[in-house]
Amino acid sequence: MTVSIAQVADLDGVDQWQAVEEQSVPFDQPGLLADPLEETTSMFTAVRRSERHDWYLGCEGEDVLGNGMLNYPLLDNLENGQWVSFTLRGPRPAGPYRPTARCRRR
Question: Is the pTM of this model over 0.85?
Answer without folding.
Answer: no
